[in-house]
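Data card: per-record layout.
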Amino acid sequence: MNKTKEVKKAYRQCQLIARQHYENFPVASIVLPSKIRSAVAVIYVFARRADDFADEGDATPEQRIAQLCQLEDKLNEAINDQTTDDFLFIALADVINNYSVPTQLLLDLISAFKQDVTKKRYQHFGELMDYCRRSANPVGRLLLYLFQQTDDKNLALSDGICSALQLINFYQDLAQDYDEMQRIYIPQEDMEKFGINEQHFSEQNSDKQMHQLMQFEYARAEKLLTAGAWLGTRLSGRAGFEIRLIIAAGFKVLNKLKSQDDVFSRPRLVIKDYIWVFWKAFRKK
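The structure for this 285-residue chain is written out next.
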């Protein structure tokens, strides 16, 4: 197989994987040009693989770290144009070369997933935001590189959006993160402030204090998402529409979280929600 066919096949494999995973937020949205959509799928599959190494299966922490280190090695090989038969890194090397993607953003993602293996609690909000800086913000910045819209203002706005979306993801997965991985992404000092302990998580207790805590956390995410929303109007055409879709989906999930009685329940977007998301993105408001 010649090089061009090999790269095209690698992209197709990434697109197939991206389509198979359900997410509340759009992945490789159909509104994007096909070339950029293919690149988004590659980045998604890279993040998905790292996430699986950190979370899935019965591996020990030591084995998970070893898998992530191997992923980092493969990334460095792709950066240095070394031959590989891994479809992900065949496609990822092409994305890096075509869009001048800073590889540090990809290394930051791996760093965050390594942290997930070893760090289960966060003392204060600053610690959590540092995690978001490496786990979520690189994804938005990578998207801006694909759009070729990487001025400082756009990057800063994107960071606000991505940190907010990461927080929202934590909030909708409170039960799953605790039950499956013994992680709590709510700052310990906030829990103490509202009289919350780990028993609330183990028993999934949505009492008054837990509601007050989560409304406090929801407000933080809403503030970040609102502050970054300007990016959706700064970017023109399909890029702007895609960003507005992501922002609108984030607000929709956040609003569902704010209104539900059980703070440990994961909200799901249904058809009417997606219609609202597209309408909101189309209106640019």
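Known properties of this structure: The domain at 1-106 is CATH 1.10.600.10 (Farnesyl Diphosphate Synthase). The chain has two domains: 1-106, 119-285.

See the next section for split statistics.
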